[in-house]
Amino acid sequence: MDALGRRVLVTAFDGWNDAGEAASAAVSLLREQGSYEPVFSVDPELYFDYQYTRPHMVADGEGHRTLRWPDATLYRPTHARRGTELWLLTGAEPARAWQGFAAEFVDVALREDITGIVALGSMMSDVPHTRPISIFAGSENERIRTLLNLERSTYEGPVGILSVLSTVADAAGIPSASLWASVPHYVAGHTPSPKATLALLDRLEDITGADLPRGDLATEAVAWEASIDAAAADDEEMTEYIRQLERTRDTWDSPEASGDAIAQEFERYLRRGGDGPSKPGRDDPPRR
Fold first, then answer.
1. CATH code of domain 7-271
2. CA distance linking residue 208 with residue 204, whole number of Å
């Protein structure tokens, strides 16, 4: 479990990389159930388009209203611990100057002796909500792939900030891996997906060896699945569509299925520009 070292930075961003809010929710849970302090935040004026990622007006317990600007912040644990130490990087995906954005955080990672990076993402996919969430686990680093039994993507096409950060980190000598959850496209744009968040944390624990909290995710995942079952029960077209997805997934999971099935779905997702396939009644998210 030491392939990525003992000081691992876990990254997730709102937006294109975060179908069903599964990846950002995973990092939020780690931060909320741990003890962290900020190390570095970027200047939002340099990287965010406020017409796309708008600041929010928030009120505190005394009713004082303040502006909260979009940001991206790196956090470190406040208490040393045995085994793998997880640092966190989260925020909104930047709208501009991605090379500068990535360079700033990689410089901080080098300064703080970060030994490895794991990028968390979630994608809208043609998968049923009733089956276990598929996780694509990959790395461009041959040693990391060998030690952790990860795959190497053959994808060519548009990418998000996670890929840019990982590429810059690898070039600077910090090995990286990525975990992508496949979220059913027919619900990914409407509700958070705790089942996908739980799957990401399970896989993150596998490759880092860190003991991770899960909070109430197991209960929330069951409730999430039941709510979709109830909604689909009133829609014959949706029920049949889900059955088709189940048959396809069961074929993938059969002993005769190719081991590249998840990787191929990941590449199909990226070629769509992050959007799931169109279906009547579904509102597609804006492209980035």
1. 3.40.50.10900
2. 6
